[in-house]
Structures are given as structure tokens and as C-alpha cells.
Known about the structure:
Elements: H1 2-15, E1 19-23, H2 32-38, E2 43-46, E3 65-69, E4 82-86, H3 99-103, E5 108-113, H4 121-130, E6 134-136, E7 166-170, H5 175-184, E8 187-191, E9 198-200, H6 204-217, E10 222-228, H7 236-248, E11 252-258, H8 263-267, E12 273-276, H9 280-285, E13 293-295, H10 297-305
Parallel strand pairs: 1-2, 1-3, 3-4, 5-6, 5-7, 7-8, 10-11, 10-12, 12-13
Antiparallel strand pairs: 8-9
Bound molecules: iron/sulfur cluster (SF4).
Amino acid sequence: MIDELKKIKEEMQNLGIRKILVELPEGLKYYIKDIKEIFEGFDMEFSGENVYGSCDSCQECHVDAIIHIGHSAIPNMPLLKKTYFLEYFKNIQKYPDSNILRKKGCIKIGLFASVQYVNELNKLKEYFENEKFTVFIGIGDSRLKYPGQLLGCNFSSYDNIRSVDCNVVLTDGIFHPLGLSLYSGKKTFSLNPYSGELIEINNESFVRKRYALMERAMKCRNFGIIVSRKIGQSRNFIASKLRDMAIKGGKGGDIILMDEINSYKLENLPYDCFINTACPRVSIDDQENFKKIVLTVTEASYVLNGKIPERYFMDTIFYVDGSR
Ligand code: SF4
């Protein structure tokens, strides 16, 4: 990373860039001191916000350029500033026991990873092929930079490898495999890159909770429809449609602009239910902290239509306002 930062510095000097903003996720903020040393002489600002993805980049900030560390670029996201995306790749430490997959009837497998591990996918493919599996790595839509990459809001790397028996997701969290299991309807395993542990995802209790929430939301009269001010999460075009649906159905609906979504802000707003058109993970990961119901876009469309389907669908983001 240090070498890449030095190259960026050189380019910035050639371009006459003076004032820069550095965005780092929580786990990499300890690099601030090193980055400051490398960019000595520049007018620097560091983001103190939680930076969850490149969708969080502060493109309206008053700087000449942005260095965004830890996430890959979202290719179809509109950018207002010269922005350098610097990925932070990690290596797989231990390969899994492939018999676990064989016993579950997985012969053709799809491989996926969160961005930190996408550079390991080809090695992992080779490993499984040596173990006599047929392995696919799919290419996603224009919100994804790398083959096999998943975002918590985009699983389109699965779209052109739908014939697989099972999915394996190389990641250290649970959200990406959970989302893919619901998106694909296939057996999905998370593969821990450190321990090599393969865990089959069981999404039943998650789905039960979301159905219970949708049932309760059927009684809501007045919806606050949240639109993110973050450039890579902003979906005004969807929020307007949902507001129209609410009003047509005899309910209230207002569009609420927000940066960070938290319980305190929601409590003070005069709505009995919220629809979150920003990062779908917020509705899902944070619902237990919210005192009010916060639906995803797909959940809201069912509730406003008055019909909840038998299969649960994740909210996914393909485009945002101004997508190229
Ligand atoms: S919208 Fe959420 S899930 Fe999607 S890239 Fe941004 S932080 Fe990740």
C-alpha cells in the first residue's frame, strides 16, 4: 500500500493537486500517521466518519482530490472529484476440507469473495479443481469491479453462473453469504480465510424475522422514506416511486434525506415506519437497535402492495442516482 500511495503522490504533484481528503474504514484508520508522512507538504484532511464502502466517499467535500482506502471503486458510481481507490487485499491462510462440499452434493461450485479476498479467487479455483470440482467465477454488473466480487448490496456475480449446485463465499463476515443464499436460492457456504472453516448458511431465522416485520408494517399509516446523501447509495428515483405507492394506497409518505441512519434520528421523526433506500445492510444489521420498523426497498414494495410473496428477496443496488 505504501508504494501505491507514493505513486499517487507523484501523480498528484504532476497534476498540481494540493488539498486532499483521505477516507479509511475503521480498521485501517491507524494508517493515518504513515499517510501523513508520505503526503507531507499537501493540505490534508482525514475523514473521521465510519467509511463502510466506496459508496460512502464524500464527493461534495471541498478538496481537490480524494484517496479512498480499503474498498474497490464502484465502476458505475458517479464521481465529482478525482478519486484514487486503493484496495487492501488479504490472503487466504488455510484451505478448506472439500469433503464437506462433496457430502452436501456440491459438484459444480460458484466462487465469490468480498473485495478484500477477490485476489485469492483464482488460487482457490485451482485448489477446488485439483479436488475434482467444476468451478465457476461469475462476472457481475457495472456496480462490481472484479469477477466473483460481492457487495452487501449486489450479488450479480451469480447471474451468469446460475447452473452451479452450491456457492462458496470467501469472506470473514456473514452478511455476504447470507445475502447470496437468499439471492440465489442455492446452498451457500461461507469460507473463513483464516481457519479454512466452511459453514453452510441457514437463512431461515433471518427470513422469519423479516416476514414478522413486514406483517407488522402492514399496519403502518405514515412512512418516512429515507434517501441517502451518500453518492453511492442515493436512490431518489426509487424513493419517489415508493412515496407514490404509499399515497395511492391511502397512506402517508415523505422523503427524508439522511447521511448516517441511526435510532436517535428516527425516533424524532413523526413516522410510524421507515423505508430505507440507502445501504440495505442498515435495515438488516441495525434493526435490533431501531425502535421503529425500517423496511428494505423490496420489503416496502410488498407491504405497500399488500401482498407478501412466499420467497424472500434481498434488496440489491444496481444503479444509484446519476449512475453511468
Ligand atoms: S451500499 Fe452498503 S452494502 Fe453496498 S457498497 Fe455501500 S456499504 Fe456496501
